[in-house]
Amino acid sequence: MHKLDGLPERVTVYEVGPRDGLQNEKAVIPVEVKAEFIDRLAAAGHTVIETTSFVHPKWVPQLADSGELLAMLQRRPGIRYPVLVPNLKGLDRALESGVEEIAVFASATETFANRNLNRGLESQFEMFEPVIAGALEHGLKVRAYVSMVFGDPWEGPTPIEQVVGVGARLLDLGCFELSLGDTIGVGTPGHATALVEAFGSPERLAVHFHDTYGQALANTMAALKAGVTVVDASTGGIGGCPFAGSATGNLATEDLVWMLNGLGIETGLNLDELVATSVWLAERLGRPSPSRVVQALSQKALSQKD
Amino acid sequence: MHKLDGLPERVTVYEVGPRDGLQNEKAVIPVEVKAEFIDRLAAAGHTVIETTSFVHPKWVPQLADSGELLAMLQRRPGIRYPVLVPNLKGLDRALESGVEEIAVFASATETFANRNLNRGLESQFEMFEPVIAGALEHGLKVRAYVSMVFGDPWEGPTPIEQVVGVGARLLDLGCFELSLGDTIGVGTPGHATALVEAFGSPERLAVHFHDTYGQALANTMAALKAGVTVVDASTGGIGGCPFAGSATGNLATEDLVWMLNGLGIETGLNLDELVATSVWLAERLGRPSPSRVVQALSQKALSQKD
């Protein structure tokens, strides 16, 4: 363990596997498997697990069981189980399920706002404002995602001031946390530093890096040095890549925890249990985890059995 | 492109694909393919390409054609084509082939010295000393690798002073460059910083990170910040992993260049040509490149053809 100056003592890993990781799975995963998955994550030490989404089932059929899942899930005290909520209909369903924290999803670019939300960069706020206001009225905490913060596939690099504009407005609306999403994984460490610094203060920022081009951990280092202490990651690296299939998407929780452990940064997470959960999940998804740590440690375990 | 304070303006990528990348391939690769591979790398802008090894063919059958390869290769002016040389016999063969630069391979741990070199941590120098002296006598440049610098599979973490002891001695023997090798990929950024700083000056240091646990680029960032300007990498990430098969071994040149390009650090390398070479090589090796950049860019190219 070797610490490095200028890094936080503790990092909160915001686990997105059950929602962001599973949402694009084609084969329907039984709700019992999802509930067990989430409970394994809690047992491994996670304090915040994005559980599901109350988006219309037509758009994300895999998460059509969100109400059923929340009814079944044994929520542990002290652990946050936020859910993604796109609109007022979704908020109503989340409230019926006893949800205490939600997340909304915004775009930093015009084209992605059009394609993903069917709104413009400006008009997307018409969707969020009533959702955020309604959630706050009911005493819920609201997180906001901003996606495509470094670039999108149509417009190229995203101007930093445009990301700050969208993000600052979401914070002003009362969101307690802003997750900056490199949805297509094109960012590099200097860009990550510049973006975090452009917000003035890192206190309410989280980062959500994708490993599509292998940059997620290098970018994470840059964000931590700039003062960010909340990092999104997905069990086993599942989900999240628009180009490269299942191979390279979300930052894998295990790869992140390996780095943080080596740096002596506390997370409260048990890496062995995380790896075991990813191996267990991979069996259920029918393909190996894309996480390098999971691959290395599970093969090592296998070779030691020989 | 977003620069970051405290990083070098320019980095030399020391390409190890033809030697370190190919040496563990089971199926024999035709010497003509190797020559074309190396020439493609030169055409893509590489200035230093570790070409082959004059190790005994019994140990590395894949590189038994080293003399033939060097005779066939059209060496371009201004480009270095170093070769690995384990002993005096290998040095003689390298000299016969008109080699101008060699590399020797040392261990930072007792157990790996025993297993890989059949010597101890101390007695391994009996192998190197005559090779280095003989090479210098003939006007050759000598690079030294030190392997297992962060840990090995038998002894756990390697004490930093032990690495510095082995490395400093190799530099004292006249090696112009010392490549610090994380042979099993267990290092994290704080450890990388501590090791580079322990040498006192980064001027003659290079780093050789493996991506077994996904840490190679984060570690590279740490090394660059500590003043290192030479980074080893392997085309498409081929080779180099003792545990996880072909999936996660050497740092992929393309993943490194993506990061350096994003940081505005000059390499002189053409990323598109590197990716095309990795795709070409993957076809000859019969499996996809493990590089995330190669996977993403080649799938993007395919999807744009649709």
Q: What is the name of the CATH architecture of chain A?
A: Alpha-Beta Barrel
Q: Determine and state the CATH class of chain A.
A: Alpha Beta
Which assembly state applies to the chains in this document?
Answer: homodimer
Of all chain pairs, the largest interface belongs to: A-B, 44 and 44 residues
Q: Please tell me the total number of domains of chain A.
A: 1
Global outline of chain A: globular
Biggest sheet of chain A, strands in spatial order? 1-10-9-8-5-4-3-2
Gap from first CA to last CA of chain A = 30 Å
Order of SSEs of chain A:
EHHEHEHEHHEEEHEHEHEHHH
Structure description:
Chains A, B: InterPro entries: Aldolase_TIM, HMGL, PYR_CT. The structure is a homodimer. The first copy, chain A, is about 40% helix and about 15% strand. Chain A has about 300 residues and is an alpha/beta fold. Chain A has a single domain (about 10-305), classed as Alpha-Beta Barrel (TIM Barrel). The first copy, chain A, has an eight-stranded parallel sheet. In chain A, strands 6-7 form a two-stranded antiparallel ribbon. The longest helix of chain A is centred in the C-terminal third of the chain and has 15 residues, at about 270-285. Mean pLDDT of chain A is about 95; it is low at about 240-245.
